[in-house]
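Dear colleagues,

As part of the handover before I leave the project, I'm documenting each prediction I ran so the next person doesn't have to rerun anything. This entry is a single chain, and its sequence is reproduced below.
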Amino acid sequence: MSVAILGGGAFGTALAVAIGQKRPVTLWARDAAHLLEHRESPRLPGVTLPETVTITADLEQALDKTAILFSMPMQSLEGFAAQISTPLTGKALVACCKGIDLTTLQGPAAILSQHWPQATPAILTGPSFAADIARGLPTALTLACADDALGTTLQEWLSTPTLRLYRTTDVTGAELGGALKNVIAIACGACIGAGLGDSARAALMTRGFAEMTRLAASLGARPETLAGLSGLGDLTLTCTSDLSRNFRYGLALGKGQAFDPTVTVEGAATARAVAQIAQKRGLPLPVCTAVAHLTDGSLTVQDAMTQLLSRPLKEE
């Protein structure tokens, strides 16, 4: 098996560094010239790409590999895939993005399957920051693939001494865990930014996790998947760390401050997509829906908390 990573952002570069410690890997990037000259990404200062990483701006060179990792923002995946005419028959296509496409209301696996029905989609997700992976800090992720034999091969090829992958066949559960935790992280950031306290954050994390599990189960996922790395693990990390872009975005919302528009915040678009799905399926997802309204400016943080706290009392 040969490995290529599409996307020279922080996460794609970090994966290239990690996997490159173990085997050759091809990294396709739009700014390949900078990476070739410096062998360092400006998004990961101080981290050098090993010589086992082949950097290229030739997309066809990367698409020639047998395992292709798509490391790009979720809202860019559909457009990127639509530009590629190469059939990719028989290849393993691993999505490393987290979210739900706002236009199609699909997750990354469905988008990859739609464009390449003769390939096998997989998801790489879980609690991780690019800088931790790149610096060789211990990290555990979920590798989800419906084809368990291929999933086992990918698990062996992509795991490293410091990057440990756990395998599952529940692709839907894994990708929804990674998508929905970003929505809850925005809620938690807004909670802290507004000065509502850690107790309120704990409540949002817990009730948010219940919503994650409820939606995932309604879409055919296994509830236990959400209790793993791709769900609860990632939720814990992103709701409690200032390194999380989604948490920082929520923090800015809570403080009434502007947020850097150049920073990708996957949870904002995903929240709006989830609100549409919840309405279509008749699912009560009050936290996710509140975040959707927060991000489109139709609801203030204080009004959102008032709405959540005034809901009818119920059993847990």
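The longest strand covers residues 139-145. The beta strands are 3-6, 25-28, 53-56, 67-70, 92-95, 120-125, 139-145, 163-168.

All the best with the project,
I.
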